[in-house]
Amino acid sequence: MKHGNYFLMMGFIGTGLLFTACLAVMIGPVVIKPLLVVKIWVHQFTGGLIEKEWSRIPEVIVMDIRTPRVLLSILVGMGLAVSGAAMQGLFRNPMAEPYVLGMSSGAAVGACLAIVLGMGRVFGPFAIPILAFTGATVTIFVVYNIARTGNRVPTETLLLAGIAVGLFLYAVVSFLKISASMENLQNVVLWLMGSFAMATWMDVKIVILPLLGGICVLCFMVRELDILQFGEETAIHLGMNVETVKRILLIASALVTGAAVSVSGIIGFVGLIVPHMVRMAMGSRHRILLPASALCGAIFLVCCDTLARVVSQPSEVPIGIITAAIGAPYFVYLLKRRKNAVNWW
C-alpha cells in the first residue's frame, strides 16, 4: 500500500472511530443529540471553553455513565486486536488470538478468587482487576517456562503448553463456581461473559497506561514480526535474536491482554477476526496491520457494546454474547477458507 493511500485509509478509519464513539454516547434509554454530546465533551475537556447551556442531567449521562464506558471499550478493543495481530504473526497462523496461551483462563482464576473470597470488601473495586491481571501475567510466565527447552522456546510447544495450562485453569474456574454462593456465582458468570456495564473513569485510569504501553511496544516490533513470517531459521540467518523477540512479544501481549481482561471480563473473537479482516483489506505488513487493527478493534468493540446495551432494553446483554454471535460464524468461514488455501499469508 502506498504512503498516501495508507494515511488516507488511517484517517478514514480514525474518523469512523470518532463517529462511532459519538453515536454510542448518543444512544440509550435517553437519546442525546450529537451536537449536545460534542458541546459537553468540549466543555469538559477544555475547561469550560464553551459556555454551559444545558441541564445537569445530560451532562451526568454523557460524562459519568456513557463516555467512560465508550473509552474503556475503545482501549480494550485496541488492546485485544493488536495483541491478536501480534500472536497471529508470532505463530504464523490466522487462528491464533490473545487468549491462545491460557491468559484468559489465568485472568478468570484471579477474578473468580476475588469474587468468591469476597476480596472486594478489603481492596474495594481494585480487587478483581488486580487479581485478574496478576492471573493472566503469571499464566504466561508458567506457560513460557513449561515450553522452554534450554535457551529455546519452540512455537509449537509454546502453543501446546498454553492449551494444557488453559484447560487446567478452566477446571479451577469450574471448581470455584461450584464452591461459590448463589450471589457470587452470578457475579462470576457475568464476569466470564464480559461486560462494560460497571465501567468508570477509575477503570480507564487503571488500564490506560499498561494498555497503551503494551500496544506501543508491539508496534515497535513490526519489523521483527515481518521477518518472522519467513520462518525462524530465516530470521536467525538475517541476524535476529528470535528468542529475545519472542520474549518481548509474549510479555507485551500478556501485559495488554491481562490489562484488557481485568476490567472487561473475557471478550472473545475480537483478537481473532479483526486482525484477519484488516489483513485481507490492507495487506500483511505489520507496520500497517497493527495500527489499523487497533482502530478497527476499537470500532468493532464500541459497536458490539452499543448493541449489547440496546438489543434488549431495559436489561443488558453481556458483550461476550454479541462478539461470539458475530465471531463464531466468521471463525467457521476462516476454517473453510483455510482448507482451500496452501498459505494464508
UniProtKB/TrEMBL annotation:
Belongs to the binding-protein-dependent transport system permease family. FecCD subfamily. One of its GO terms (molecular function) is transmembrane transporter activity. GO terms for biological process: siderophore-iron import into cell. CDD domains: TM_ABC_iron-siderophores_like. The lineage of its organism: Bacteria, Pseudomonadati, Thermodesulfobacteriota, Desulfobacteria, Desulfobacterales. SUPFAM superfamilies: ABC transporter involved in vitamin B12 uptake, BtuC. It is found in: Cell membrane. Keywords: Cell membrane, Membrane, Transmembrane, Transmembrane helix, Transport. It comes from Desulfocicer vacuolatum DSM 3385. Its main location: membrane. It is a multi-pass membrane protein. InterPro entries: ABC_BtuC-like (IPR037294), ABC_transptr_permease_BtuC (IPR000522). GO terms for cellular component: plasma membrane. The chain crosses the membrane at residues 7-32, 70-87, 99-120, 126-146, 158-178, 208-228, 248-276, 317-335. This is Iron complex transport system permease protein.
